[in-house]
Design brief:
Layout (H helix, E strand, L loop, with lengths): L8 H21 L8 E5 L5 H9 L4 E6 L2 H11 L4 E5 L10 E7 L8 H11 E11 L6 H10 L11 H10 L3 E6 L18 H11 L1 E6 L11
Parallel strand pairs: 1-2, 1-4, 2-3, 4-5
Antiparallel strand pairs: 5-7, 6-7
Helix pairs in contact: 4-6
The protein binds S-adenosylmethionine.
Length: 228
Amino acid sequence: MIQTYWQDAARDEAMQDEHAFIWRAMLETIDIDLAGRRVLDAGCNRGGFLRLLADRRGITEGFGYDPASGAIEDARQLAGQRPLHFEAADTIPGGWCDFDAAFSHEVLYLLHDLSAHARAMFAALVPGGVYYAVMGVHASSPLMAEWHRANLEELHLPELYDIDEVIAVFEAAAFHAAAARLAIRFVPTAGHGHHGQDRLLDWLDYYYDKKLLLRFSRTAESSASATP
Ligand SMILES: C[S@@+](CC[C@H](N)C(=O)[O-])C[C@H]1O[C@@H](n2cnc3c(N)ncnc32)[C@H](O)[C@@H]1O
């Protein structure tokens, strides 16, 4: 079902501000140069990550999709003259292909059909392309397991995935997988109280230990024959 915002206008805006330090850590951690690249952001919400890539990493073009149509409208307004394109969709829009790199930040845990997503991402990347997916909401993350239980119904969440299960799904879609922890420097302490979990040490453990950057590579030799 298409909804206007993921949560609501105010909470989506606040979320994007809170995520800026993680987006910077993602850029510190990745192992490719994005200058001159064509980049996809799955679950882009208001487009803040793609604006960062356009402003600081010199991407040629950025494409973002998200089922939250209100957030996508905001993303279009906020993009200004940047070479960014946004669509309201719950999977990669038709005709979007040939990406050098793709990203998602905390989106995999929301997807009911991870295999379909993995196959669609594989098809959308050029051979040699890379999909970087950040995932902190998984079964080995106690803080997020708690959050998942509390929000299961309201957010129509699928079961809480195990990180090894996620890797297996992407490998079955012919990706080569690798994982890293994020190069986070400082975690802002403001903004965590509204989760109802005001425990700084738990949050530091989450950001430095549990929140992972998964790298799924469509190597030049990867064959899509594994995809049905
Ligand atoms: C936790 S938010 C993260 C947003 C953004 N990536 C960021 O870093 O701020 C999750 C986002 O995933 C979006 N989403 C939900 N279902 C999706 C789907 N099937 N495909 C892509 N995005 C989806 C939500 O609308 C929401 O904007």
